[in-house]
Amino acid sequence: MVSRNVPHEYFLLDAARTEGPVVGHLRGKPISAAVVDRHGSRYRFVGVAGRDRQGGLDVLSLKHGEWIVAPDLVYEKAA
User: Fold this and answer.
1) In total, how many domains does the chain have?
2) Which of 35, 49, 51, 57 reaches 20 to 30 Å from 2, CA-CA?
């Protein structure tokens, strides 16, 4: 279990590029089916990150292998 005191920045994925089709939009910005990080690892879109009562990103709801890509998109490492 992750402590509520852990900064959400620890769960952010720095995606180098997007890949695949646009699967939707969030706040007027496109959601890519996949992203690739700077090391070449591929991640697929699985949802939108929730927010806690204070409006912060709810990182406790992330599953193993899931990361947040701004703005509030959740991607999991592709097998």
Assistant:
1) 1
2) 35
